[in-house]
Structure formats: C-alpha cells, structure tokens
UniProtKB/TrEMBL annotation:
Transmembrane segments: none annotated. InterPro entries: Cell_Envelope_Assoc, DUF218, Rossmann-like_a/b/a_fold. This is Uncharacterized SAM-binding protein YcdF (DUF218 family). Pfam families: DUF218. The lineage of its organism: Bacteria, Bacillati, Actinomycetota, Actinomycetes, Micrococcales. GO terms for cellular component: plasma membrane. It comes from Microbacterium telephonicum. Residues 56-197 form the DUF218 domain.
Length: 217
C-alpha cells in the first residue's frame, strides 16, 4: 500500500472515531438534560406540610439485588440518593420484598445504609412489597403522620413513584419534597439505560391497563 493510501486510511479511521465520539457525547448530553427535567417533574406546586410533630420520612424504593444478599449498583445508588436528600433526623423507610432472591431488598439496602452512617434507630424495613405501587401502599403506616415525604429512587423510577402516590393519596402527595436524584454524569450510561427501561415499562403497563378495560362501547 502506498504512503498516500495509508495516510488517507488513517485519517478516515480517525474521522470515524471522532464522529462516533461526538455522537456519543450528544446522546449522553441529551439524556442528561432529559434526566434533569424528569427529576423536577411530578411534584406539588407548593408542598403542604403534615403534622408539625411528624417525622420527615424518606421512602427508599427497593430494587433487585444480588442473590448472595450483597447490594447491587442500583440499590447502592438509590440508598445514596436517600442519604443525601434527607434532612437531619429523618426516618428512612426501606421497602422491598425478596423478589429475586432470599433476602428482601429492604434488608439489603438498609444494611448498606448503615454502612453509609445512617443510624439504626432511624431505619425501618418494609419487606413484603413486590411492585412500586405496593412499595407505597405498604409504607402508608409511616406516611400518614409524616411532616414531609421524600421518595428516593433513580430518576425515572422516582417520577413514576410520585405519580403513583398522587393516585394513591393526593393529600400525601401534597407533602412531597424534592430528592436529589439527579447529579450531572452520575453513573454515566446506567442512568440512560434505566430511563429507557422505565419509559418502556410504563408504556407496557399502560397498554395492559387499556386492554384490561376492554374496547370502548
């Protein structure tokens, strides 16, 4: 091969790499912007506090972990979101049953929370829930008397949980305060993957709900 051809081939390869990098950066930037928007959606226009002597409750939504009971990356992420979003002396409600293993999600995540420095006496575990709606419904005993409520999860899932809480109990939804589920570039492509997964899952659930209702007369 002549030097000129080798040079053109090298330049073409470099151009392809640069082009792919630019496309990847654009996709990542777009997903970060969308995640930022989603992280601010679904909250009440103005939060209405509950009983003044109630607790500031942070509900930490479960996620399947490893079969050996150690926390997976999403479980650790959701727990860190809860910790950094909580006011002093908050009550943490970890919710999630043993969906994909023998150890309840709430137990695994609560153990990790203790490693992060969250006090044992400020942790409760709800270990029966197997869906997001059950996470909220089974956490009601700690929510009804709460002064404020925060729902801690990854960005797309947290928005869906806020919607479910509004459907479950609008008065409790009115007590919602923001969580810090968005930090720029946190977890990189994982957030994009979870956003896509949550969007697809929401469409599937909506389709099933429409089918369950049957055809309109």
């Amino acid at each position: 091969m002549s030097p000129d051809r080798r040079g053109r081939g090298t330049a073409g390869a470099r151009g392809a790499i640069v082009g792919a990098a630019l496309v990847g950066a654009a996709v990542l930037a777009g997903s970060e912007w969308r995640a930022w928007r989603i992280s601010r959606a679904g909250y009440p226009d103005a939060a209405e506090p509950g009983p003044p002597d109630g607790a500031d409750v942070v509900v930490v939504l479960g996620y399947p972990g490893r079969r050996d009971g150690s926390p997976g990356i999403v479980q650790r992420w959701r727990t860190r979101i809860a910790r950094r979003s909580a006011p002093p002396d908050a009550l943490f409600v970890f919710t999630g049953g043993a969906v994909h293993g023998d150890v309840p999600e709430a137990v695994t995540m609560a153990r990790y929370a203790q490693r992060l420095g969250i006090r044992t006496d400020r942790i409760v575990r709800e270990t029966r829930a197997t869906t997001t709606r059950e996470n909220l419904a089974l956490s009601l005993p700690w929510l009804v008397g709460a002064r404020s409520i925060r729902l801690a999860s990854d960005t797309g899932h947290a928005r869906r949980a806020r919607q479910y809480l509004r459907e479950l109990d609008p008065a409790l939804h009115a007590r919602l305060l923001p969580t810090r589920d968005f930090l720029p570039l946190e977890t990189g492509p994982l957030r994009l993957a979870l956003l896509i997964h949550d969007a697809v899952a929401a469409r599937v659930r909506a389709h099933r709900a429409r089918r369950a209702l049957g055809p309109h007369p």
